[in-house]
Amino acid sequence: MKNYDFSRRQFVGTIAAGASGLLTALPGISIANTSGMENPSEAEAWFKKVKGTHRIVYDATEPHEGLPLIWTWVYYKTNNETGSPDNDITALVIFRHNAIPFAMDDWLWEKYKLGEAFKVKDNNTNAPAVRNPYWIPKEKDYPFPGIDGVKTLQERGAMFCVCNMAISVYSGFTAQRMELDPETVRKDWLSGILPGIQVVPSGVWAVSRAQEKNCAYCYAGG
After folding, report:
1. Distance between first and last Cα of the chain
2. What is the Cα–Cα distance from 206 to 92, expressed in whole angstroms?
3. Strands (E), 44-96
4. pLDDT averaged over consecutive 10-residue blocks of the chain (222 residues)?
């Protein structure tokens, strides 16, 4: 079984190779376009849901021990404390690069060992996570209790999307590591995106669209 470290250098190198049509370093990984999305126009329409006086986009490129989600919760909490209700607020979180597993269901974490691959620890077991710790968090997943997970934040109006380009690249890495068919793994990952999370052509595409909707920008990487 091959082992790949999901590094920024390797990610960018794969995209560059794909753009030139070579992909000699990682054969079998396809990132030619966004054709893996069943309906790319859905991503454009999804941004029409951005609402309210107060708008922010969190650019989540790394797991960062759940901080992209903590900051989203803090944004709602402190806006509430200064007089703004949830319906006048939009926090939009873009899971891209190494943060894409936060958009995926528990069964994908277990099947593909995403906690080990993306270096996400389960604080309840002190081992690599085999579930998504921040969808519906357990007692020790956050550093202190009372912080909302993705599902509850969605109910409050927060919006979450995930980068299709990163899914294509990293599912290919994973397929090679596990000696599986890259296209099968890619489709598997897309089938396990959590409810309400929008697949977008790329994370940087989504950053641009969010700012066109007057969202303030906050980098939420490592």
Report:
1. 29
2. 10
3. 54-60, 89-95
4. 50 44 46 58 95 98 96 98 98 98 98 97 97 96 96 98 96 95 96 98 97 97 74
What pLDDT is attached to residue 49? 97
Domains belonging to the chain, first-starting first, are: 49-219 (3.40.1260.10)
Measured distance CA(27)–CA(6) in Å, rounded: 16
Q: Quote the pLDDT of residue 20.
A: 38
> Is the C-alpha dihedral spanning 115, 120, 121, 123 positive or negative?
negative
Structure tokens at 140: 């020790």
Report whether 167 contacts 186 (CB < 8 A): yes
Q: pTM (2 decimals)? A: 0.87
Spacing of C-alpha 116 from chain mean position? 16
| Residue 6: both structure tokens together | 């999901």
* C-alpha–C-alpha distance, residues 23 and 31, integer Å: 9
Specify the pLDDT at position 221: 80
At 88, list the tokens: 């006048």
Q: What is the DSSP string of 176-218?
A: HHHT--HHHHHHHHHHTBPTTPEEES-HHHHHHHHHHTTPEEE
